[in-house]
Amino acid sequence: MQNSHLVKAAIQFLDRQRFIAVPTANARNEPHASIKMVLFATDAYVVLMDYILGTTYENLSRNPYVSFSAYDTEALKGYHIYGEVAIIHGDAKDFKRFVRIWDDQHVHLIADKVIERLREGRVSDEMRIALVEPTVFYKVNLQEIEEIQAVQR
């Protein structure tokens, strides 16, 4: 695809992201953006999890091409990703494997949230951690990666 160093750096960065906004467009080219969980990333694709079959699903069913960005505001660096989405349903061969990965990550996500609240002294706050089940996965086959970096004056 591209420079292997750039791909490796982008994949490592995406693997550390928990959530990203995924913009899509409907048949009338009206934009829609929705937050999706990053399940994992490889040098060939990024897997995103969704727990509803909503607007993103409808839009990607019509037009499977996406681009999204992830940015680290402290490092002033990020990546812009272009790709084509394969929609992974319950009957697809990768679905069960992705669900197992989700189950493991979900436990870590909940644990991290509990620890964060304990450190902040918010033990008495109501814990609103939804036990969501994945409905569909979006496997974004990487076509192009661009590095985003702040320009220094």
Structural topology:
Blueprint: H1 4-16, E1 19-25, E2 31-41, E3 45-50, H2 55-62, E4 65-72, E5 77-88, H3 95-119, E6 136-149
Antiparallel strand pairs: 1-2, 2-3, 3-6, 4-5, 5-6
- Indicate the CATH architecture of the domain at 4-90 and 133-149: Roll
- Please count the beta strands (DSSP E, at least 2 residues each): 6
Order of helices and strands: HEEEHEEHE
Termini gap:
32 Å
DSSP helix count? 3
In order across it, which strands form the biggest sheet? 1-2-3-6-5-4
Radius of gyration, Cα only, in angstroms?
Answer: 17 Å
Residue-averaged pLDDT? 84
Helix content: 25-40%
Low-confidence stretches: none
CATH topology of the domain at 4-90 and 133-149: Pnp Oxidase, Chain A
Main pleated-sheet profile: 6 strands, antiparallel
CATH class membership of the domain at 4-90 and 133-149: Mainly Beta
Tell me, briefly, the overall form.
globular
Quote the beta fraction.
35-45%
CATH superfamily of the domain at 4-90 and 133-149: Electron Transport, Fmn-binding Protein, Chain A
| Category from helices, strands and their pairing | alpha+beta
Notes on the protein architecture:
The chain has 3 helices and 6 strands. With 153 residues, it is α+β, with helices and mostly antiparallel strands. It has a domain of 104 residues: Electron Transport, Fmn-binding Protein, Chain A (Pnp Oxidase, Chain A), CATH 2.30.110.10. A 6-stranded antiparallel sheet has the order 1-2-3-6-5-4. It is globular and about 45 Å long. The model has no long low-confidence stretch (mean pLDDT 84).
